[in-house]
Design brief:
Helix content is 46%, strand content 26%. The chain is α+β, with helices and mostly antiparallel strands. The protein has 3 domains: 91 residues, OB fold (Dihydrolipoamide Acetyltransferase, E2P); 45 residues; 126 residues, OmpA-like domain (60s Ribosomal Protein L30, Chain: A, 2-Layer Sandwich).
């Protein structure tokens, strides 16, 4: 009698384990894309065909990157999976939700994602880092203007020996020098485009992608004397904190597109980034006004001192 009960119990246990295994089994899924959002152990990945896939991490998920020229891969911690990172994933699930077994990325793409994150932090310190290359270029312009000033001062000193005869020349030199200094460090807007988004969305339309590509192409005409500024906003629907996050996602999407698809150098992007509900351009009381406020403003800025120096050399 006891043996029979044990046999029945073992059969029931086997059936439960079989049912559990069937419930947990899923299709093997492979894919690749860019992380646009991370919340805990959940990643939102935008694939190459603009689809959004939810990738779930577990304690058994392997995160790795290739090492050297061979097939060897190095295991790393899951904390490196940050927004802006290109990756390849394998796991079980379907085309919209995947539980990852393995995630693979390139180290160069991780470096790029870290730069994107630094550029999207709306603090003066992070903006300064993004402006580092531009500041180096500006210092070169300062040196050129200082040399011109020294030459102008020498001309003024010589003219002072005969001030009555050369007063007009002295005034001209002084005026030109003052003008050059007043223009140093000013920005000139040479191109701009506004990307508009649907409610709660941060996807970039094909038309806006083309416009951003055209703006990036226009920027190359200025050599190293330009920066591209990105600032993204949200309407007032929802909470202020959620709109702050949404505006960051919108800025992040634009910056990632400029870096990865338009080949804009990292040092050429200035990203105030997440502006939340601030600076609305229209009333949030109407649907059309809210549509105008769900935007990312992208501007091509050129140093006026560099523009003037270039014009003077032609």
């Amino acid at each position: 009698m006891i043996g029979r009960r044990i046999g029945i119990a073992m059969s029931l246990l086997a059936m439960c384990l079989l049912s559990l295994g069937s419930a947990q089994a899923g299709d093997k899924i492979k894919g690749k894309g860019v992380i646009t959002l991370r919340s805990g152990n959940t990643l939102t990945v935008e694939t190459d065909d603009d689809a959004a896939v939810t990738v779930t991490l577990t304690a058994d998920t392997k995160v790795q990157h290739p090492v050297g020229l061979g097939a060897r891969k190095k295991q790393v911690g899951q904390e490196v999976l940050i927004p802006g990172l290109k990756l390849r994933y394998e796991g079980t699930g379907d085309q919209t939700q995947v539980t990852a077994d393995t995630i693979t990325f390139d180290r160069d793409d991780l470096s790029l994602a870290k730069v994107i994150q630094a550029g999207l932090n709306p603090t003066a310190q992070q903006q300064s880092r993004n402006m580092e290359a531009y500041q180096a270029n500006k210092e070169a312009t300062d040196a050129e203007i200082a040399a011109n000033k020294a030459a102008a001062d020498a001309a003024i000193a010589a003219a002072n020996r005969d001030i009555a005869a050369n007063q007009a020349s002295i005034d001209t030199v002084a005026q030109d020098t003052k003008k050059r200094f007043s223009e140093l460090g000013d920005f000139v807007v040479k191109g701009e485009h506004t990307v508009y988004f649907a409610t709660g969305d941060y996807s970039i339309s094909g038309q806006d992608r083309n416009a951003l590509a055209d703006l990036a192409k226009q920027a190359t005409a200025y050599g190293k004397g330009y920066v591209i500024q990105v600032a993204a906003f949200a309407d007032s629907v929802g909470t202020a904190s959620s709109n702050q996050v949404l505006s960051k996602e919108r800025a992040q999407a634009v910056v990632a597109y400029l870096l990865q698809e338009c080949s804009v150098p990292v040092g050429r992007i200035v990203a105030p980034g997440a502006m939340g509900e601030t600076n609305p351009v229209a009333s949030n009381e109407t649907a059309s006004g809210r549509g105008e406020n769900r935007r990312a403003e992208v501007k091509l800025l050129v140093n006026k001192g560099i523009v003037v120096a270039s014009a003077g050399g032609n």
